[in-house]
Specification:
Strand content of chain B: 15-25%
Radius of gyration of chain A: 31 Å
Mean pLDDT of chain B: 86
Number of helices of chain B: 8
Number of helices of chain A: 10
Number of domains of chain A: 2
Strand order of the largest sheet of chain A: 2-3-1-4
Mean pLDDT of chain A: 84
Order of helices and strands of chain B: EEEHEEHEHHHEHEHEEH
Number of strands of chain B: 10
Largest sheet of chain B: 6 strands, mixed
Low-confidence stretches of chain B: 236-242
Distance between the termini of chain B: 33 Å
Largest sheet of chain A: 4 strands, antiparallel
Structural class of chain B: alpha/beta
Order of helices and strands of chain A: HHEHEHEHEHHHHH
Largest interface: A-B, 22 and 30 residues
Oligomer: heterodimer
Shape of chain A: elongated
Low-confidence stretches of chain A: none
Radius of gyration of chain B: 17 Å
Strand order of the largest sheet of chain B: 6-7-8-3-9-10
Helix content of chain A: 55-70%
Shape of chain B: globular
Number of strands of chain A: 4
Chain lengths: 310, 242
């Protein structure tokens, strides 16, 4: 089987300066054969899915954090409606006058009632239920670290019942869990790569043993280790290319399908995980990395076997 | 480069496999460029073991071996292929690559040395013609007779014009006429500067190569009927060699 020129050049670089003996057809087959392409295809597909999951989670947290960073919520927890109204006005005035604040928006009481209605039912509209006043605050991009603390202190003087919270802090435990999931995906990819390397090691070792007599002959005729290793690398590369293409197709189609399904939910939160071109490029790199792992493993295996010969 | 035409020099070489007794003991000799050597001895005398040392398939248990001017015992193994490419080996069991045609088997040493396909086609075809297998160039070893396989193995050993040719019973499977023709080929290589070592137990062959030197192995030790062990080997009258 003829190897595409791009692989050929890659092999020459990996194999060192010794001349190529592929033309000598020392190995009877151009591939390791057997289930190797399918093993690689499955591993690549699983890696693509894991990488896709990790990227979606990374996108989700990055975009959500960007949206929440700089967002503050001020609650005026005051039972007396008059006092609550006065403190809300004072707090709003103070915030609007601060240079670090880009936007101040008092949440209307009707909106508050609508927010808690799913939880409290009709009681949410009862005048007997005291709801705190809420003020949404967005800081400027140039707001220095510690602005929230400064505003909290300032608010305490004009609105003693005010409580200031950073919006990102509410979701921090969720973001932490998502980050853990991302690491889980990365670990999964690493384990899959390791499993692939083990499969290639086994296949290369079997192929070497199956062709031992021929290799001995060629070795005695003066073939160098690098020349012989390159024959196996070529065979592995062919299998990795076939398996990688199949695996990428399976994994890519699955990711695209899942992406379309999630997009159909029409949720802003879910949309945060959507892929950009850079993400697809990273996913497309999975089979390339897998081929690199397979090549390195095959080379190491064959060189190790050859090292036992004189 | 070899000094004074020395291709190989053995100094006090011994070989044992594992913890067994020495199969070769106290071998000291030189092989010179252009010289034809017969290696004789009874079965089990150590001929094949000595040949293995010569074609670098085995390291000795003791002693020193220099080839082409360099010490091959301490040479790093990654530098051995370059030495092996200067050797031609005819194995007793031929060791042809089974899935390759006769042509591809003969072309192997040239391909390993990086000779282009265009450059190797004609010499390989000529060599196959010379050993009488021009019409069997595409045949796989399994479809060739023992004698034909032997001729392919010889053609493969000499195609790259080695500096040292090591042949283990190279005429064992061919008819007398072809055997003589192959010996003439080896002699011709010798005239081109190749040191030729032919292991045989066929005493009839010994008288057929004028000016050959005989190395006789008995129980792993070399006797010196033609002065081959000296530095340099002394040539003896033909009648003492027969």
């Amino acid at each position: 089987m003829k190897v595409p020129p791009v692989f050929d050049r890659a092999l020459r670089r990996l194999g060192g300066p010794a001349n190529d003996i592929a033309g000598a057809r020392v190995l009877p087959a151009a591939r390791l054969g057997g289930p190797m392409p399918w093993v690689i295809a499955i591993m690549v597909a699983l890696c693509v899915l894991a990488a896709g999951g990790a990227l979606a989670l990374a996108n989700f947290t990055a975009r959500a954090e960007a949206g929440l960073n700089g967002g503050l919520t001020v609650q005026i927890v005051e039972a007396d409606p008059v006092g609550r109204e006065a403190q809300t006005r004072a707090a709003k005035a103070l915030l609007e006058g601060d240079r670090a604040v880009a936007e101040v928006q008092a949440v209307p009481e009707t909106e508050l009632a609508r927010l808690v209605e799913p939880l409290l039912g009709d009681a949410a509209r009862s005048s007997a239920l005291v709801l705190p006043a809420l003020i949404d605050v967005r800081l400027t991009d140039a707001a220095p670290a510690g602005t929230a603390e400064r505003l909290r202190s300032a608010l305490a003087t004009v609105a003693p019942s005010a409580r200031l919270d950073a919006q990102a802090a509410w979701l921090e435990p969720i973001f932490g869990a998502i980050r853990a999931l991302r690491w889980l995906a990365v670990m999964l990819i690493a384990l899959l790569m390791l499993a692939s390397a083990a499969a290639v090691w086994l296949a290369a070792r079997n192929a070497f043993d199956a062709n031992r007599e021929t290799i001995m002959i060629v070795h005695h005729l003066g073939a160098g280790d690098a020349q012989l290793a390159r024959l196996f690398q070529r065979a592995v590369l062919t299998d990795a290319a076939i398996g990688g293409a199949i695996g990428l197709a399976i994994g890519g189609v699955t990711l695209a399908f899942l992406g379309a399904r999630f997009a159909g939910l029409d949720s802003g939160l879910v949309a945060n995980g959507a892929f950009g071109p850079g993400d697809w490029l990273l996913v497309a790199l999975v089979p390339v990395i897998m081929a690199g792992v397979a090549l390195a493993t095959a080379r190491r295996t064959v060189l190790s076997r050859l090292g036992r010969m004189l | 480069m070899a000094v004074n035409g020395d291709i190989v020099r053995f100094d006090n070489v011994g070989l044992r496999y594992g913890t067994g007794r020495e199969v070769l003991s106290d071998l000291s000799f030189t092989l010179h460029a252009g010289q034809f050597y017969f290696l004789t001895g009874t079965s089990g005398a150590g001929k094949t073991s000595l040949l293995k040392l010569l074609y670098l398939a085995q390291r000795p248990s003791r002693g020193a071996i220099r080839m082409f001017g360099g010490d091959v015992i301490t040479l790093p193994r990654q530098r051995l292929p370059a030495i092996r490419r200067r050797l031609g080996v005819v194995f007793q069991d031929f060791r042809l690559v089974p899935h390759l045609s006769a042509f591809d088997n003969v072309a192997l040493p040239l391909r390993l040395s990086g000779v282009s396909e265009g450059e190797l086609r004609q010499p390989v075809a000529d060599m196959l013609d010379w050993v009488g297998l021009g019409s069997r160039a595409d045949a796989r070893p399994a479809t060739l007779s023992g004698g034909e396989q032997q001729r392919v193995a010889i053609a493969r050993a000499v195609i790259a014009r080695p500096e040292l040719l090591v042949a283990d019973e190279p005429t064992g499977n061919v008819d007398p006429e072809m055997a003589l023709k192959l010996l003439r080929l080896f002699e011709a290589l010798g005239r081109l500067g190749t040191a030729v070592v032919v292991a045989t137990h066929d005493v009839n062959l010994l008288g057929k190569v004028p000016d050959c030197l005989i190395m006789r192995l008995d129980n792993g030790r070399l006797s010196d009927p033609t002065g081959a062990l000296r530095y340099p080997p002394r040539r003896e009258p033909a009648e003492t060699r027969a």
